[in-house]
Design brief:
Lipoprotein; plasmid; 28% helix; 5 helices; 4-stranded antiparallel beta sheet; alpha+beta
């Protein structure tokens, strides 16, 4: 009886973690091989709500991880485009970068076929982000460089589908007023 109870508790906990991580909310070059410096991933906040607040991240790694998780986690059925993720992550960008990344760009072709298919399937695209520093310049008191490797999974119904290829983003963070913000990013 005791073993059954323990197994049941472990299964319930695993299901709860899976369901919580799938809730609605957040250019590979092969040159960098970032190594994760984070512990357990923190799911992106639910989109369109502010039901809970997390403590403000204090390290460049945590800022980079949170920003890239929110940026690359999408709900194509409700998001206008991948730019919606950048809009949700502006709190971790400098004002100049936020303005550049979220400007209202008009596309002649419309959304990609993949985006449209995800929208039709009511898919959620979940980002898993690893932060590293392979080949980064040394940190200073006010500047840090990091490399983010983003692995996305499209979840359609209850079925996960890996999204290829991984995305690699090089980030420059600056510290001002005791807070790290992403000042530049390149693919």
């Amino acid at each position: 009886m005791r073993k059954t109870s323990i197994v049941l508790i472990v299964i319930i906990a695993a299901v709860a973690v899976l369901l919580y991580s799938c809730r609605g909310d957040g250019n590979p070059s092969g040159n960098a091989t970032p190594q994760s410096t984070t512990t357990a991933p923190t799911p992106a906040p639910e989109m369109g709500t502010s039901a809970f607040q997390r403590p403000e991240p204090t390290s460049p790694e945590e800022v980079a991880r949170r920003a890239m998780t929110v940026t690359f986690t999408w709900a194509p059925a409700t998001d206008e485009s991948p730019t919606s993720g950048f809009r949700r992550a502006t709190q971790w960008f400098t004002p100049a970068l936020a303005a550049r990344l979220t400007s209202d760009v008009r596309y002649e072709r419309g959304p990609s076929l993949q985006w449209q298919q995800w929208s039709n399937d009511n898919a959620r695209v979940i980002a898993d982000v690893a932060i590293g520093c392979s080949g980064c310049p040394p940190d200073t008191d006010t500047t840090a460089h990091r490399v983010a490797t983003i692995t996305q999974t499209a979840v359609i119904g209850d079925t996960p589908h890996p999204v290829e290829p991984e995305i690699t983003v090089w980030l420059t963070l600056t510290e001002a007023d005791g807070r790290w913000l992403i000042d530049n990013l390149t693919y």
